[in-house]
Specification:
The complex is a heterodimer of chains A (about 160) and B (about 575). By secondary structure, chain A is an alpha+beta fold. Chain A is about 35% helix and about 25% strand. Chain A has an eight-stranded mixed sheet. In chain A, helix 2 (about 60-80) packs parallel to helix 5 (about 150-160). Chain A is globular. The N and C termini of chain A lie far apart (about 50 Å). Chain B has helices at about 1-25, 195-200, 445; strands at about 30-45, 60-70, 75-85, 95-110, 115-120, 135, 140, 145-155, 155-170, 175, 185-195, 210-220, 230-245, 245-255, 285-295, 300-310, 350-365, 375-395, 400-425, 430-440, 460-475, 480-490, 495-505, 510-515, 530-540, 540-550, 555, 560-565, 565-575. In chain B, strand 21 and strand 22 (about 480-490) form a beta hairpin. Chain B is globular. Classes of the chains: A alpha+beta (about 160), B mainly beta (about 575). Chains A and B meet through helix 1, strand 1, helix 3, helix 4 and strand 8 of A and strand 1, strand 2, strand 3, strand 4 and strand 15 of B.
Chain lengths: ~160, ~575
């Protein structure tokens, strides 16, 4: 009985899925220098924006962001896209974020979501989780997990936005 | 009379409805529903060789669904949770059972105010005196139920006040710490200031400087006739962060008032215990300092941390995983290779002195070492020592105690970890990683290493781990990743080897085969841990199925490490975000 009601509820949640085009919720994150930033102020001047949730302890996350880093200058040049990397590292590993980001020569905009408020507000289960936000600030696509090649799919999605 | 009330009510609700409806026409104020859910099912098999645990039900199902509703400045959310029953790895102390609403809140937020009523998660500074958080997969949830107010009077300050009761467990709905368990009331205030913006008009500071401070207190009745336990225990913290050039310095100092509790060994079990080992009460202190320097292609970080009597829970008698108000993460780095998870460090809140150094270096493309695609080096060293313990005696009673000063190390090494990782891309098709890790693990203190009969290993474990990881990109969508691992130790379970092969087809499929073999342990054939996993991903939804044997392991989240028993069987996991 309980099980069936559980499944019914979860199933009805499934039905709600599909209302895409949501705006980015308003939460406060910190930049790498400790300054607070409102997530609704994240923008790319009318061009598409990638919001990627990652952590220094997450191997697939680093694989994804390091792979994209190789092609990022091309992506920026061709589409004007900006990648915002939101680290969910907590106090344990947060001090490694800044040296890791610089040590890896990343050109992303990086923010800290220490107590996972932004992650919770965006409905992220686990990392890596990538959102694509269009020029009007609406979430138009998302993908959980990373396998090599996923970056090509992401790029296709970006291209479809700027056409 | 009633009729009037009903008409009034109807008019008001009608007005609200029309208002809401009119509002909805404006695109920026459109109502938005977002959320996610996760469902984990497990079927357990008997497996006596590894003392696998099979619950009475032989199956476990746990899940949750979060729904967030947003409209303009208003947000409401709830989480449905189910544990029928919880998986065997969940904490044993508090119960996790049944089905119900585990979390609900309403929030109003504009540029000046942010008010939340209901359940909330909050962190002050680094969390050393206050962090309420969750990790659903591991059965951790320290949220508060009450009120939170945030005020941002200007762009250089934020003040947060909280008042709530702490979540304890789940039984067809969230169970908060009840009155007979000690109320579990937590309140606090925090302020953060950005000094550059504040002093903008007066003086231009070199670099960026921010400071902050918090005060937190908890309340619990004293029901003891014998001891005069403090009912209100306060804690404070002061912190700063300073950036200049490529340097960043941050530090936090914290203290906790006299806080006799079971976890800090200052009381034993029950308030009226006559046990002479009931300790003298002491105050808590903790410091965390970090300095980093980084520039493009290079980064270093040095961390120093020391704790003395820092366990801070909302119940005096709380178990090791229950009712934590603060968050004391281990100084060590979390590694994800299978065999490097055999010996994870767990913070010792009662006293430790810890240091860590990290280095990241990127060898440029087209240099001798960098080769055509560049090469990355990561080094990390952590050492944690016992504190110097000066024993105290209260001659008037038989109570004992200890004085522990910060950064005054004792003779014993609790833990050390040296690891090095080299990542190199050899060609467009092939990338390789070499990883080495040496761990010294004092199991008499950390208590994370168990044998197959679930008996903790005595003494210190010394281990060396070697990993080679390779990544072969077959074509645009198909990829094979493999890991070969070998761990050598003369203690605990002796030597291990492990292999992993993961085949992925982007963006939808993955297939993984793993075997971990404890060949050094006597009858090695009994100690293979094979498993296969298959998964399918579509956008933000993911389903995975795993069949096989899982070795007992230590799951560490934050300052807490929990031993998860060995198991054998089938597990299914579904996650989705919307």
């Amino acid at each position: 009985m309980k099980l069936s009601s559980t499944l019914t509820l979860l199933f009805s949640l499934f039905i709600i899925i599909g209302c895409a085009q949501d705006p980015v919720p308003k939460v406060v994150v910190k930049d790498l220098k400790g300054k607070s930033i409102n997530t609704t102020d994240l923008s790319n001047g009318g061009k598409p924006m990638i919001i990627n949730f990652w952590a220094t302890w997450c191997a697939p996350c680093k694989r994804e962001l390091n792979t994209i880093a190789e092609v990022y200058p091309d992506w920026q040049e061709e589409t004007g896209v900006k990648l915002i990397a939101v680290s969910i590292d907590d106090a344990r590993s947060q001090s490694r974020v800044l040296p890791y980001v610089n040590g890896s020569s990343w050109d992303y905009e990086v923010y800290l979501d220490t107590n996972q408020d932004f992650k919770r507000a965006m409905g992220v289960n686990n990392v890596p989780h990538t959102f694509l936000v269009n020029g009007e600030g609406r979430i138009v696509w998302q993908h959980n997990n990373y396998s090599p090649g996923d970056e090509d799919e992401l790029y296709e999605q970006i291209l479809s936005l700027i056409e | 009379m009633y009729l009037v009330k009903i008409i009034k009510l109807a008019l008001v609700s009608g007005a609200i409805f029309i208002g809401v409806h009119a509002f909805a026409q404006d695109d920026n104020n459109k109502a938005v529903v977002m959320g996610n859910f996760q469902l984990d099912g497990q079927y357990y098999l008997e497996d006596s060789a590894i003392s696998a645990v099979v619950p009475e039900e032989t199956m476990a199902l746990s899940g949750f669904g979060n729904i967030l509703y947003r409209k303009g400045k208003f947000t409401a959310g709830m989480r449905f949770e189910t544990y029928l029953p919880a998986p065997v790895g969940y904490p044993a102390g508090a119960s996790w059972s049944g089905t119900g609403i585990g979390y609900r809140f309403a929030q109003y937020s504009d540029d000046l105010f942010d008010i939340t009523v209901g359940n909330f998660y909050e962190q002050f500074g680094n969390g050393m005196i206050m962090r309420t958080w969750e990790d659903r997969g591991l059965g951790v949830d320290y949220m508060l139920d009450g009120v939170r107010l945030k005020v941002r009077p200007s762009d250089w300050s934020e003040i947060t006040a909280i008042y709530g009761k702490q979540r304890f467990n789940f039984d067809n709905g969230t169970q908060f710490v009840s009155d007979d368990l000690g109320q579990g009331i937590v309140r606090g205030i925090n302020a953060d200031f950005d000094l550059n913006s504040l002093l903008d008009s007066i003086v231009a500071l070199p670099g960026q400087l921010s400071i902050g401070g918090s005060f937190v207190s908890k309340f619990q009745n004293n029901n003891s006739a014998r001891y005069d336990f403090p009912e209100n225990v306060g804690a404070g913290s002061a912190r700063l962060k300073y950036n200049i050039g490529g340097f960043q310095f941050s530090g936090e100092y914290t203290w906790i008032g006299e806080n006799p509790s079971a976890q800090n060994a200052q009381i034993v079990n029950i308030p009226d215990s006559l046990d002479p080992s009931v300790g003298l009460w002491a105050t808590g202190k903790g410091v965390n300092l970090n300095g980093t320097y980084s520039t493009r292609g290079f980064g270093v970080s040095i961390t120093a941390s020391s704790l003395s009597n820092m366990a801070f829970q909302s119940q005096r008698e709380a178990g090791a995983f229950d009712s934590w108000i603060n968050y004391l993460p281990p100084t060590s780095v979390l590694q994800t290779y299978l065999l490097s998870q055999l010996y994870p460090y767990a913070t010792q809140p009662n006293g430790e002195v810890a240091y860590r150094g990290d280095l990241f270096y990127n060898f440029k493309r087209n240099t001798t070492l960098g080769g055509r695609y560049g090469m990355k080096l990561e080094l990390s060293y952590t050492q944690v020592n016992s504190p110097n313990i000066a024993e105290l005696n209260d001659l008037g009673t038989s109570r004992n105690g200890a004085k522990i000063d910060l950064f005054d190390p004792g003779d014993e090494i609790y833990f050390s970890d040296f690891n090095a990782k080299l990542t190199k891309k050899f060609s467009k098709k092939f990338k390789g990683i070499l990883f080495y890790q040496n761990i010294v693990y004092n199991n008499d203190v950390i208590l994370g290493a168990y044998d197959y009969d679930n008996v903790p290993t005595k003494g210190t474990v010394y281990s060396d781990l070697f990993v080679f990881e390779g990544n072969v990109k077959i074509n645009k969508k198909n990829n094979i990743r493999f890991e070969a691992q070998a761990l050598f130790t003369n203690q605990h379970l002796q030597d291990w080897v492990a292999g992993l092969v993961e085949y992925t087809v982007s963006p939808h499929w993955f297939f993984t085969v793993i075997d971990q073999w404890n060949y050094g342990n006597g009858d090695g054939d009994d100690f293979h841990f094979p498993s296969v996993s298959w998964g399918y991903i579509k956008n933000s939804s993911r389903i995975s199925v795993t069949y096989g044997r899982q070795r007992a392991g230590v799951f560490c989240v934050g300052g807490i490490c929990r031993v998860v028993p060995a198991s054998n069987g089938l597990s299914i996991s579904i996650t989705s975000s919307f």
